[in-house]
User: Fold Phosphatase from Meiothermus taiwanensis.
Amino acid sequence: MIRIEKEFHPEDAHIGGRSPATCHWKCGDACAQPVLNQSENPYVRSVIEEALTRRSFMAASLGGLFMLSGLVRAKSAGSLGFKPISLSTEDRVLVPEGYTTNVVIRWGDPIGRGARRFDVNNWDVRSQENAFGYNVDYISWLPLPGYASGNSRRAILWANHEYTNPELMFPGYKPGSPSKEQVDIELAAHGGTAVEVRRNADGSIYYLPVSVYNRRITATTPMELSGPAAGHPLLQTKADPTGRRVLGMLNNCAGGTTPWGTILTAEENFNQYFAGNNALPEGPIKRSHTRYGLPEGNSGRRWELFYDRFDLTKEPNEPFRHGWIVEIDPYDPTSTPKKRTALGRFKHEGAETTVAPNGQVVVYMGDDERFDYLYKFVSKGRFNPADRKANMNLLDEGTLYVAKFNSDGTGVWLPLVQGNGPLTAANGFASQADVLINTRLAADLLGATKMDRPEDVERNPVTGAVYAVMTNNSRRTAAQVDAVNPRADNRHGHIVEILENGNDPTATTFRWALFLVCGEPSDPSTYFAGFPKDKVSPVSCPDNITFDQAGNMWIATDGQDGTFRKNDAVYAVPTQGPERGYVRQFMSAPVGAEICGPIFTLDNKNFFAGIQHPGEGGTLEKPVSSWPDGTNVPRPSVVAVRKLDGGVIGS
Ligand code: FEO
Ligand code: CA
Ligand code: CA
Assistant:
């Protein structure tokens, strides 16, 4: 018997920075569940002061190394010219003086001939399959006519659609008892969109409703499982006895773009879509599903009412086919998306790539769960800039590592390789496929460091330093504080700076330091890379980051409505030079929204952001936002920012 797990009521109490609606639909109320990582991995004992003292030593040694390797460009001191804006509760997108924005595309805008004109009262599955999907997360700019062209005027814009808010999509939605039509529209509103875009003479960006590149990927698009775990018995289901063909991708949060111009899109909170873990017999399958947080009873969206694959009592293996990094070639609209099992299975936040000096490709990844881990993948083969096709399966073979941080500012990447230490058949890991399918369990055994919800991990293209964003963790107790997660009840999050040994991303050892410890600057536990606190903007719950061509970090937040009682925002901060740590607010979201997918065109004259879940906390009947159209239907959208004088953003 499946019991009712939890129905959604906006007034329910919740824990953490977000609104109850975000907790429910985005992560399946992850904040309210018990901590999933019950491993006894040690905490790195230290205190924040110790880490902060080390900071000046690290700055000197990092700077020294960059100078030696010639990585710092003389002009890239990283100063920024805009006047910061303030936190806001206004229901609109705010940018600094001298900047303006335009909405590029919004939920329901047609990208194919099959969609009718958007009308929330008259919408159907076929229309949704041919229209922009719901909550925008990762965004990428893929220049046309080819990736190598670097074009900043014409491109394929990619956007992830992480999840749906049925209470903001369907008039009179009844939580717990959706219709099949509503469920099918939700399936079609998940996934991602590729759409051709162009830049107008005034610098604004518009999309083409009809283009050969326009494509929707949904939660039912056929995909291939590739790499070491493909075909494994745990990946086989009644519908797919081969274990190689899966329908769709779920909860695609952030991602990355490869040097060969494909999209990596990250299945994050996939667990919440599956019902009935309590009904499974005790054993390895249930143990794994429990470590990944699958619902004990009903799922929140109740897709299991209409589709057996979401009901564990009928199909216990379907969740093993989700939680992967999916690679998509947007330049070939007929291509089959591939789930790259070599990159491990967890609640993938994103997957940012970099190329090592020897040509190996390195992918940095976070597992966004309280007390979960930071990973990287190093390809066996090498990137070939002269032959795109030769790179297409680079991510099927290589080594996956998990990070262990030491309290002395050093760290090590532990290989998740079958046979390494405890990763043996006796412990449930008889093959590399077993390690990859149960990545979390393997990392538990290796003693990886438990982090405060790792989100984006990205390498600074100017300096080579790697930045790992910890969004928050209000469950960390004083007894669990360590050097790299230095705060108990960490509501505001922090950003860790990692320097790989020799500045080589394939290295297996690194040094690290705290870059930012977020919050209201007057809070003594905050730290802004040593920059005077009275000058910086308050920032909380950092989530996605990107870098401009000068190496400045741009940070989008998720949760300031819960921590500051203000709207989420975008910030810019230099990572080097005299203004290192000088955090300045650049953007503010409408009511209820988080900002996702920060990305620049190559010339840095446009900046894009996803406005995700505007109006969350309300319903269509009781709206709290009218963004972007001034109507009662808030619509998740991609926004393009430009400077009024046509200059480089941030200059
Ligand atoms: Fe979907 Fe980790 O945010
Ligand atoms: Ca995120
Ligand atoms: Ca990013």
